[in-house]
Design a protein that fits this description.
Elements lengths: L14 E4 L6 E2 L13 E3 L3 E6 L5 E7 L4 E2 L7 E4 L3 E6 L6 E6 L3 E6 L14 E4 L5 E6 L3 E2 L1 E6 L4 E5 L4 E6 L7 E6 L6 E5 L3 E6 L4 E7 L9 E5 L3 E7 L5 E7 L8 E6 L5 E6 L4 E6 L4 E7 L6 E8 L6 E4 L11 E8 L3 E8 L15 E2 L5 E2 H5 L8 E2 L55 E4 L2 E4 L1
Parallel strand pairs: 2-6, 13-33
Antiparallel strand pairs: 1-31, 2-31, 3-4, 4-5, 5-7, 8-9, 9-10, 10-11, 12-14, 14-15, 15-16, 17-18, 18-19, 19-20, 21-22, 22-23, 23-24, 25-26, 26-27, 27-28, 29-30, 30-31, 32-34, 35-36
Family: Belongs to the WD repeat coronin family.
Keywords: Coiled coil, Repeat, WD repeat
Organism: Electrophorus electricus (Electric eel)
């Protein structure tokens, strides 16, 4: 890779910096599992990390402001009977998180405001459908209560969380272990990478293959793939000589890579994080002590090296903060939560600017927390574009979108019909639902073996 030619870019001087010691989360026993997931998920309210647990699986949830040494008695989310492999915050409700485990189940949890005060053992809903451990979770970016899971049974399931059931089951396409699965920006396509050395672009509701690429990387080590802008795909993998590579593909000409660059000879899997607002992709290697970042453009060589953040300690996992959770006044364009052996260390990516004014070129309108379509409508064929929000005045939380699972309808208040227009009043959380209360629908429900069904 050539790094000598200086090209014009406003992100050429992006630099990463770890926060001070008192702003880290210390004394946390991070999970020792060797599974290649992030082990960490963050949103503007909470940071969640998979931790060591005896007699099952657990993860810890902390309010962002609760830094310093974490007490050993800190409550955990501990409802799984096997180790937790992946966790993912819901993009439309900052209090709802999904977890996948070796016990073959997916569980949806609601975290109370302010964090946990006692261990959380009962999920809002339990989703059962996989026959082997569940290692990949991803919420739909625009449809409310739609969750994708992939397991070691080579099956991808799309869940209608509000009904507690598997709406789409893709079980014949993948012949081996699924390495990664992700949505595109509006949730109309799914991209998977598999141990059978194939990339597959899928229609999620039909469960059919739209495009397929064999051997995007020659090596036999895991391949990761993410969507980038303008119908392009970025992959990380290994060459035949076990050199780590990054490649960019155009879906219109899927057979040849637009660019393929070799990075180094390390053995850790590269986890890609793409920011569509700045067109920057961050590559975080498991076991590495560095974060590389590149700018994706329309001119060759398409993937331009920017710089690298390095530290002394290697990372066991990495969480990536959504754009709406960043500190706009400090020109922060990304924030990572780096997991060490016994702590979590935030790493801030900043563009140096002298002006104190809002930097419009760094912060275009970004994806907000409001969904554009409900689960039932999406499965019926309706698509929704992302609802964008401005970051100019800093992020101001809107009325919380409740997790409308059947089990919690009688305990979680719903907003009035004016809520979606932004002018509705919300019933306080501790106010019980009265039988004659007309502000929200109530439904009878029963929970059988963790799945919800209408009665």
């Amino acid at each position: 890779m050539s790094r000598k030619v200086v090209r014009t870019s406003k992100f050429r001087h992006v630099f990463g910096q770890a926060v001070k010691a008192d702003q880290c989360y210390d004394d946390i026993r991070i999970s020792q599992m060797t599974w290649d997931s992030n082990f960490c998920s963050v949103n503007p309210k909470f940071v969640a990390m998979i931790v060591e647990a005896s007699g099952g699986g657990a993860f810890i949830v902390l309010p962002l402001g609760k830094t310093g040494r974490i007490d050993m008695s800190q409550p955990t989310v501990c409802g799984h009977t096997g180790p937790v492999l992946d966790i993912e915050w819901c993009p439309h409700n900052d209090n709802v998180i999904a977890s996948g485990s070796e016990d073959c189940s997916v569980m949806i949890w609601e975290i109370p405001e302010g964090g946990l005060t006692q261990p959380l053992k009962e999920p809002v809903v339990k989703l059962e459908g996989h026959s082997k451990r569940v290692g990949i979770l991803s919420w739909h970016p625009t449809a409310h209560n739609v969750l994708m899971s992939a397991g070691c049974d080579n099956v991808v399931i799309l869940w209608n969380v509000v009904r507690g059931e598997a709406a789409v089951r893709i079980d014949t396409l993948h012949t081996d272990l699924i390495y990664s699965a992700c949505w595109n920006r509006d949730g109309t396509r799914i991209l998977t990478s598999c141990k059978d050395k194939k990339l597959r672009l899928l229609d999620p509701r039909k469960g059919t293959v739209i495009a397929e690429k064999e051997k995007p990387h020659e090596g036999s080590r895991p391949v990761r793939a993410v969507f980038v802008s303008d119908g392009k795909i970025l992959t990380t993998g290994f060459s035949r000589m076990s050199e780590r590579q990054v490649a960019l593909w155009d879906l219109n000409s899927f057979q040849e890579a637009l660019t393929l660059q070799e990075l180094d000879t390390s053995s850790g899997v590269l986890l890609p994080f793409y920011d569509p607002d700045t067109s920057i992709v961050y590559l975080c290697g498991k076991g590495d002590s560095s974060i590389r970042y590149f700018e994706v453009t329309d001119e060759a060589p398409y993937v331009h090296y920017l710089s690298m953040y390095s530290s002394k300690e290697s990372q066991k996992g990495m969480g990536y903060m959504p754009k709406r959770g960043l500190e706009i006044n400090k020109c922060e364009i990304a924030r990572f939560y780096k997991l060490h052996e016994r702590k979590c260390e935030p790493v801030v990516m900043t563009v140096p600017r002298k002006s104190d004014l809002f930097q419009e070129d760094l912060y275009p309108d970004t994806i907000g927390p409001e969904p554009s379509v409900e689960a039932d409508d999406w499965f019926a064929g309706k698509d929704g574009k992302p609802i964008l929000m401005s970051l100019k005045d800093g992020f101001v939380a809107t009325t919380k979108k409740e997790c409308k699972s059947i089990k919690s309808l009688l305990t979680i208040p719903t907003a009035s019909s004016d809520h979606r227009h932004g002018n509705g009043m919300v019933r306080p959380r501790n106010t019980p639902v009265q039988e004659n209360d007309q502000s929200g629908p109530t439904l009878g429900a029963s929970v059988i073996k963790g799945c919800c069904s209408f009665s």
